[in-house]
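Onboarding guide, step 5: your first structure request.
Type a short instruction followed by the sequence, for example:

Predict the 3D structure of this protein.
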Amino acid sequence: QVQLVESGGGLVQAGGSLRLSCAASGLTISTYNMAWFRQAPGKEREFVARGGWSDGFTYYADSVKGRFTMSRDNAKNTVYLQMNSLTPEDTAVYFCAAVRRSFGGRIPSSYDVAYWGQGTQVTVSS
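The system replies with structure tokens like these:
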């Protein structure tokens, strides 16, 4: 059974930083393209970052480029999202995801996700 468990969310002031973790079990992250999505209240779930084995690159949404960094520790089977210079617009539930192996593009949509984590709340106060 695949499980993706996020942690590290919380309340932070604008300009602050948080690091999210996603511990995977039931799958090996080095064999999947892993991604982060987020969903703000009243909005659709949106792509944040994707990294993976298929092409060796990491892709970011324009809204987080230069502020967020996605990384992985294969030995711990864990994916991370370092978030710096946070703004209130970053407030959302953040989801870890394992992208379907059939996905061949750069930026996955929600429909390209095989497995989801339960999400972790990030709230940025102004």
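Each response can be followed by summary notes, for example: The chain has a mean pLDDT of 95.
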